Amino acid sequence: MVHADDEIRARLKRSVTLAAGRSFLHGGPAFPHAATMAFNGTWKVDRSENYEKFMEKMGVNMVKRKLAAHDNLKITIEQTGDNFQVKEHSNFRNIEIKFTLGVTFDYSLADGTELTGAWTMEGDTLKGDFTRKDNGKQLTTVRTLQGDELTQVNTLMTFSRQSQRRTLISKTLLKSLCAGINSYAQFPSSDSQQSYSYEGVEAKRIFKRS
């Protein structure tokens, strides 16, 4: 007679074996996000690069920029599969954020700027793509690990559009002009061409595990 505990152990063993087999056949890890659990823990900001300039482009006033540069931000990350729970503690606020990889959610920055977007995992990199609700500007956040440091790179994309007008001459008018005949049967027409450019403002914050 097979005991219930023995049957459960046998099923677990078969599940692990099947997962390992899928990993071998498809060249990927048996448990896709196992390696990314390295983000788990508490991280305290150690230094920043270009952070005040980034906040200026975000529209944060000078007083808040100076205060935010010394916010003593500490984040605690807890990942379970695709689900994350992040606690932020700073001189300004203490909040808790929950999100699932690939699922859109709403989030607000410390200065009150409201965003909507989602986090995704690309290899060992945690990437957030967000859009500001007030002006539609794009904001990306990339988190990577190196040793006992977590680096967070924020990039704000500013958008500009330029219009150029060009004149179109009809074939009939062009033929008449070439023949030396003044013709007003056809008139030049015009349309506009628009060129788009993006300019990124980047800031970096480095956290150490605490």
UniProtKB/TrEMBL annotation:
Molecular-function GO term, any one: lipid binding
Entry superkingdom: Eukaryota
PROSITE patterns reported in the protein's UniProt record: FABP
Domain annotation Cytosolic fatty-acid binding proteins: ranges: 41-58
One Pfam entry name: Lipocalin
UniProtKB keywords: Transport
Family membership noted in the UniProt record: Belongs to the calycin superfamily. Fatty-acid binding protein (FABP) family.
Protein name: Fatty acid binding protein 2, intestinal
Organism this protein belongs to: Fundulus heteroclitus
